[in-house]
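We treat protein structure as text, and this decision shapes the records that our systems exchange. We quote a single record here, exactly as it is kept in our systems:
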Amino acid sequence: MRRPRDPKRRRAPVAALAAAALIVVVTLPYVALHLPQPQTMVRPAATPLIADELHDQPFAIYDAFVAAKDGCATATVIAQLDGGPARRLAVLRDAGLDRWNDKRRALRQSTDGCEACVAGRMRVRPAVREAAAKRLEQLGGAPRSLECGFADTWVAAAPLDKEYARRASTLIVECPVPRDLMKEACAGHLQIALRAPGRARFHPAVPLHVQPFAEPRDLGACLWATGDAFAERSKRVGMAASNAVDEVSTWLAAHAVVGVEQFLIYDNSRGVHARALTGAIDSPLAAVYAPFREKLAVVPWPDERFLDDLVKTATEGNLTAQTFFGRPSQFAALNSCHRRMRALGVEWVLHADADEYALPASPSESLYDVVKRQPVAAAYAMPSVFYAPCGPGPIGFASLTCAGRAVMHRRKLIAHAERALLLHPHGVALGGSVRTLDPGADARLVHARRGYHFGDAFAARAVLGERDGGASLRDAARFEALVRPRLVGAGAVACAAAPAGHKVKAPPAGETAAAARARRRDAMEVCDREDPRWRWCWCRDPDIATVWAPRVAGARRRLYGS
């Protein structure tokens, strides 16, 4: 496999490169299996993680590929400005990670056990921000220009405009492949490096993978998934266990039912990425993928949860690495998948989590039918609506009978593969406008959050709750008076007929900023406000159980035999 030559050996200007964490990027169509047994896939192309000490770049490469569709003329590199996991760990340690528990104990002792005082004086978030900014400054700041290296040739990447550089934590870099190397690239024999002029060391060359071309398709779907059994701990719902095999198989079946034609799964199950480096993928989700054959491909992705574990230990379980960095690995997967879908020939791409289902309002329509009749946009957004059983009973897809809190800012997208240039988890950072779909007329995002229920105001996310968790007595009473009657009993409100036009009451005189934020986030106040898209909350939705659940169950029987 050919790799770029060190520019020092050619007396070229000294340059620097990318990647604190270089990740495997593999597209593997799974063969048909009709046995519920995990299977080992062999000979995947894998990209090893590159140690931080081997380069001095301010970002980490997560993916690099060429598209067979365009004759391998352009290389696409996906990188994160947050760096790889090793750099983020270094930032946390610069911010005092190893001393946080000692500081917390000392503050607790000095304040006579006042937990609110401890939380207010720890100031770990500002410390991490300052440490991250200092690290980035030491590495020369965000790159203004980049070059890609192929064999003995370095070529300029497409310009990074100022707006892109200002708004992007994910870098999407495109470089033309030299014409005499295109055949080699299409054969999967080429490597790529990336350098930012002015930095001392370039990133060691990594494999340039080939994204195959499929027949043009209307709608694809991306999923960042894990096959590991784990329990999600939340102050709102306590411990909520996950059955990953059931969750992912239901997600795939549900979206096949609504018209998704192509799936790309970014599998970050423990050990999948490491095993891919040895030439095999052994995922706990292999049997889930198998029946889809050429309609589903898998990209082994790194598991970075060890950072969450370290932060939880250092903060007595109160914070995770996501608190400070978001999810860089997931952000990279999001944009990698979107660009790979474009290379596959897919027109529209659904981005959703494994516990989220995008369902058309009309059972006679597919998601693509919904998109086709909308005004032109770069993407269409579906606000998250938390769903759960209206009352006690078995848990499962068919039990999602009531819609709870609607969260307008927490939305998922159906994005155009060409128009949407850069995505973040809840919108389009660059590439055009986003239109919000009406859950009653177009499509809704059913968020089956683990452990979510309508047992009390706090668990139902109706209120922010007290500092130590739980709803106040006043809020619990308001929940019983305002919300519960909409879900159960003779006065239950159907989502399709939910009243609209209720205005949020005027703020009281002298209201503090904190009180204003709390009021705006109080879901018992904003539901039914003038915007009709907010109607779809605190109401009964029979369509899941009566229309969609039978179709999904039928799809599961066809796919998995059960």
Remarks:
- The chain has a mean pLDDT of 82.
